[in-house]
Amino acid sequence: QDRLLSNIAWRARQATDIQDFSNKIMAGVRRVLNVDRVIIYRFNSDWSGTIVAESVAPGWTSSMNETIDDPCFRMNYIEQYQNGRVRAINDIYNEPGLNDCHVLTLEQFEVKANLIAPMKQGNQLVGLLIAHQCSAPRVWQQSEIDFFVQLATEIEYALDHISFIQQLQAAAKRERLLGDIAWKARQAANCQELLSTALSGIRKVLNVDRVIAYRFNPDWSGTVAAESVAAGWTRAIHERIDDPCFRDRYVQQYQNGRVKAINDIYNEPGLSDCHILTLEQFEVKANLIVPLRKDNQLVGLLIAHQCSQPRNWKQSEIDFFVQVAIHIEYAFAHVSFIKQLEEARTVAEAVSIEQRQEKEALQAQLERFLQQIQGAFRGDLTVRAEVKGGEIATIANFFNALIENLQQIVLQVQSAADAVTQTAKVSEIDVKRLSDEAQRQSEAIAATLQQIQVMANSIQNVATSAQQAALKVQEANQTLQVGDKAMNKTVAGILAIEKTFEETALKVKCLGQSSQKISRASSLIKDLANQTNILALNASIEAKGAGIEGEGFAVVAAEVRTLAEQSAVATKEIEQIVEEIQIETNEVVTAMEVGMNQLSTGTNLVKTARSKLNSIAAVSAQIRILVEEMAQAATSQMQTSLDLTKTIQEVATIANQTSEQSQAVAESFTKLLKVANELQESVAQFKIR
Fold first, then answer.
1. Which of 109, 640, 644, 673 is the most buried (most CB within 10 A)?
2. For the segment 198-233, what is each residue's pLDDT rounded down to a tens digit?
């Protein structure tokens, strides 16, 4: 047993084929357990199963590749084995709870006793390891059961390892296929060659029975454009398939990128009968479909067919199939691009050859054309180009028309040059005489202009002097007016002074009268002071007679006497002042009377001067009017002389211009004669007849 377990581990590391590994391991298990048959039973998606490995003793029925659909097993035992159940049946006819349908299934393979252990992959039930005792019932020992469970576990590990190795190998094959597609896309001459290589590789990598490339027609029917099919299966190449169910229900889905994996066409929900009939024509049991697009438009399908039996498609297989479709799309685009480049290159080469031939023909025509018109470059206008056909012929016709027109122009120029020469010779003397007369006229006008300018300057001086005299007279008149106003103010001032003198004299008289009143008042005050002094003296005497009681009264009496004395002194000063005022007032009155007489005399003089100034103002006004009239006349004469000067200047300018133009015309006639002679010489170089 240990050697068998070691052998399983060793073969797992060496094996690359699960089937070969399984068959050899089954033979070893059968020999160690000494049973009649050992099988590996693999579940399908519907929990039916297929015997995928077997070792059977001679004389017993082989069950290899048998598909067993035991409804009793499906309903009663799946979950138990999923949970790790190990079943040892010593005798199928005496096993409690064993259903009749299960017994019938076992009888098909002559089973009397069996031993069953689950096999899992990734914690999912994928099959059973079963030992059959066909010769007779058998009581299984616990050690045999334990060993069998251990065998199942080892085989699970071994199968996982081999499956992993196969997955790596498959991944390598897939990557290699993708690389081959990319390489073939660069090497293939057309899409059909590329498809043949890709489909053959896909069929081998996925181990399917048929792979096709299905190309849509405009009405969404389709044709099998390329195929790789295993031996023994119907070929579908070039078959035209018109499936109305597909057109109505699935086109839009595949346009949107749908990928469809059908494990069993008879157990696929939603698969229509007409679609199943179409698949049955090609013996399809399971298929895998991905869209093929070009420029984001659905153009076909890439389809893998499993014809031998239904198939549970793995996600890795689906992903690989999608990836291959994408690579094929890229490859188609690349091949199409290369084809377009080749077509463009072919067209470009053809165009290049055609252009080169046209260029050579054009160059030959151009050489003949240049030879024919060579004489025109030397002035021969009688040459003509005779090229016919092609673009050069158009240029030749244009050149001939141009030469003919040039010939006519030269003839006209010759005639015109002769006429111009004759006219210039005849007119040259007249133009010269006209120029000399214009020059003399210009000089005479210039002399006249100088004399008029002298006269204008004299008139200008007179006008200036008259204007200055008018200004002086105006200033004198203004001065007289100012003097008159000043005289009026003087008279008014003298009258005001005279009035002021009268008022002052009156006030001085009033002052004299007031000073007399002050004199009388001061005499009265003087009398009062004397009387007060006497009363004070009497009071002082009385106070002394009164003794001590009269001392205070004596003091008052003394103060009163002092005051009376002061009043007498002040009165005396007032009398002196009043006397002085009266004297001075009398002097002022006398002076004012003299001033009044002088004012009266001045007033009379001022009135006389005012009368004289009025006479002078009247005469000045007359002179101003005469001077202003003289200035206006001088100004008018000056303006007239300026206008005359301007007119003469304009005439002189016109005369100068006429003289210059006459000279220019004369020079132009000389040049014209010279040009006409040169033109005649130039035209003479052309050959026109």
1. 109
2. 788 888 888 899 999 888 888 888 888 889 999 999
**Nearest Cα to Cα of residue 589 among 505, 501, 659:** 505
What sign does the dihedral 184-189-191-193 (CA atoms) show?
A: negative
Residues of the chain with pLDDT under 50: 12
Level-2 CATH architecture, domain 188-326: 2-Layer Sandwich (3.30)
The reply to whether 393-680 shares the fold of 2-167 is no
Question: Nearest 5°: phi and psi at 241?
Answer: -120, 125
383 φψ region: left (φ > 0), alpha (ψ -120 to 50), beta (else): beta
Residue ranges covered by each domain of the chain:
2-167, 188-326, 393-680
What are the pLDDT digits (tens) for 452-478?
677 667 767 766 776 776 677 677 667
How far, in Å, CA of 14 to CA of 161, rounded? 10
| CA trace torsion 301, 306, 312, 316 (10° rounding) | -50
Q: Which pTM does this prediction carry?
A: 0.38
Domain boundaries 2-167, CATH class: alpha beta
Question: 393-680: what CATH class?
Answer: mainly alpha
CB 330 within 8 A of CB 292: no
Which residues, 6+ apart, have CB-to-CB distance to 199 below 8 Å?
Answer: 211, 212, 213, 226, 227, 228
